[in-house]
Design brief:
With 485 residues, this protein is an alpha/beta fold. It is 22% helix and 24% strand. It is built from nine helices and 24 strands. The protein has an eight-stranded parallel barrel with strand order 16-17-19-20-21-22-23-24, surrounded by five helices. Strands 1, 4, 5, 12 and 13 form a five-stranded antiparallel β-sheet that branches. Strands 2-3 form a two-stranded antiparallel sheet. The chain starts with a helix and ends with a helix. The N terminus is likely disordered.
Length: 485
């Protein structure tokens, strides 16, 4: 039986805010989902509706609803209780993620080797994330108080050990909220067609050739950049484009060294930067050596600072956002580039900027599409932010590391064929077997890898590759070439 996530979530709740749905969703909008969170205990009805009915945790008020570990939401949610599991790669329950084992001695709730946890390993324990929640996760068993539970009289709660930093938490069945993920579409917007896995696919992407883009992050080092480009010539058949750090968000309060000296003024605006003074005439440098068919995408970067002021000033002001987008577009068109990439990673700030960025990215995408629909606007992400960004491509940086397959599932479910798989030879030295598996995945329809049409690769430094990783790229070059061809 093939049972997709879409089939399951349709019956959870029919209410939604269509403006929060993914751009691929049609007029019927998207489904709502009830998340389970760990909260301070109270007498609220939302904390008094759980019953242990082996092997399930069910709702007392609606016994047909079961607690489900969702790998694509990376959360516990309420889903209709399944009588038979599906075999779709995107199906949350293809490893029986509604069936649990309760150990009356240890008080741990495990999946008994029947479900993949948040590290993409079989088995695991329910756990209150960071001791206090509100996220409840299925992860490795730590055998700590936040892994120990009771389910009695409708209340599912964790062990109370405040002296050790583990406060008592009660699981809470939240009201359904609009699901902004592409996999939650009820129907598809014009220009999209529902795929066999319940995800709306962009008709324009059908038949699109595969792409591999190489990130470059040495744009203010002319000697190093020329050496890297000369080395890339040797591997030209292994990639189709370059994404290069070149632009920044500049204002009077920008971080020192982030912008050219002449660009430290208000209001916040677009200019080359991050780092300041990049090599000039990069179009000629790249295409004279790597060919006129090389696709080029500058990165607008913001990060390595605890001061969020320039970023916030930009993305919360529609007038400044519009001007920023038009200045960026002019640079792209003047240089005959193929689009633009955004990499925002401010440090030590709260996550509200994720939501504020939604309108900013929508403005940039509109400006670029109106000028030339072929131009791509892409967004670098450390994992789906929970907001439906109206961009052309969603570049997953969380797939750089060992849990790439689970992160791929979450990203593809959230963003459909906007999803771009991220690999990083400069982040880690993998064994030949691990690299082989990453490319075997790409050839597997069952694992979902066949859906990947683009890989963006961080980051090539030529002879300046990180110490100990000088040979890592050698594992990848022939694999990229074979995948493209």
């Amino acid at each position: 039986m093939r049972l997709s996530i879409l089939t399951l979530t349709l019956v959870v709740c029919n209410s939604y805010d269509i403006d929060l749905c993914d751009v691929s969703c049609g007029g019927a909008g998207c489904t709502s989902t009830s998340l389970i969170t760990a909260e301070n205990c109270s007498s609220s009805p939302e904390q008094n509706d759980f019953i242990w009915s082996p092997p399930n945790i069910r709702s007392i008020s609606n016994p047909n609803m079961c607690v489900t570990w969702s790998s694509v939401y990376n959360s516990a949610i309420m889903q209709p209780c399944a009588t038979e599991n599906g075999d779709s790669w995107i199906n949350d329950m293809d490893k029986d993620c509604q069936s649990f084992v309760f150990n009356s001695t240890s008080k741990e709730l495990t999946t008994d080797n029947s479900c993949r946890n948040n590290e993409w390993n079989l088995n695991g324990c329910f756990d209150i994330k960071k001791k206090v929640g509100p996220i409840i996760q299925l992860t490795r068993c730590y055998h700590q108080p936040n892994d120990r539970f009771t389910i009695e009289n409708g209340v599912w709660k964790s062990e109370n050990d405040p002296a050790a930093g583990f406060p008592e938490r009660c699981m809470t069945m939240n009201s359904p909220k609009t699901c902004p993920r592409a996999g939650c579409c009820i129907d598809c917007a014009d220009g999209y067609t529902m795929g066999k896995d319940g995800i709306c696919l962009n008709d324009k992407e059908k038949g699109r050739g595969k792409k591999v883009n190489i990130f470059l992050a040495i744009m203010n080092n002319e000697t190093g950049l020329n050496e890297a480009v000369d080395d890339l010539v040797k591997h030209r058949t292994a990639f189709t484009g370059i994404i290069f750090q070149y632009d920044g968000i500049c204002s009077a309060s920008s971080k020192e060294g982030d912008c050219n000296n002449s660009s430290y003024y208000d209001p916040v605006h677009f200019d080359v930067g991050h780092p300041a003074y990049p090599v000039s005439d990069v179009t000629n440098l790249f295409r004279s050596k790597l060919g006129d068919d090389l696709e080029l995408f500058p990165i607008v970067s913001y990060g390595d600072t605890n001061d969020n002021t320039p970023l916030t000033d930009l993305i919360t002001n529609a007038t400044l956002s519009e001007q920023f987008a038009r200045d960026a577009l002019k640079q792209v068109q003047d240089n005959n580039w193929n689009g633009i990439n955004f990499g925002f990673e401010p440090t030590d700030v709260d996550d509200i900027w994720y939501y504020q960025a939604q309108d900013f990215l929508a403005i940039v995408s509109r400006v670029f599409r109106e000028a030339d629909p072929k131009l791509k606007v892409s967004w670098d992400s450390n994992g789906f932010e929970g907001i439906a960004y109206n961009v052309d491509q969603f570049v997953a940086m969380n797939t750089y590391y060992g849990t790439f397959e689970g992160d791929f599932r979450q990203g593809m479910f959230a963003t459909s064929d906007k999803f771009v798989l991220g690999y990083c030879p400069s982040c880690q030295q993998l064994s030949d077997e691990e690299v082989e598996d990453r490319f075997a995945f790409l050839e597997s329809e069952e694992r979902g890898g066949k859906l990947v049409k683009e890989i963006d690769v961080w980051a090539y430094y030529g002879s300046g590759n990180p110490e100990g990783l000088e040979d890592s790229w050698k594992q990848y070059w022939p694999k990229f070439e074979a995948w493209l061809n």
